[in-house]
Write a structure and sequence with these properties.
The protein is mostly beta strands. 0% of the residues lie in helices and 56% in strands. 29% of the residues are buried.
Amino acid sequence: QVQLVESGGGLVQPGGSLRLSCAASGSIFSIYAMGWYRQAPGKQRELVATITMGGNTNYADSVKGRFTISRDNAKNTVYLQMNSLKPEDTAVYYCNAFVPATRTDYWGQGTQVTVSS
């Protein structure tokens, strides 16, 4: 089992920045990759960025050059630095961890990000 706890969401003006954090606990050794997904009202959940335990990253085209995913292995924490935020980035952001041995996706509770003036 893996538990994920997110923090760092909030209200920010267009052009501003936020940093999301996701702390993992439990069977950390079994995780292959962690990432961030988001879901806006009336839309499907979509991938934002992922990072493997080997450090390989992947980004949605809509956030490339603005968002950066990183991890701190000592703290079992993954971060999402979001810069140049736009109103269309408004969504609930969910942390994800994938365990290949059981083909299981674990999810955090979600954190609201609102970009508005």
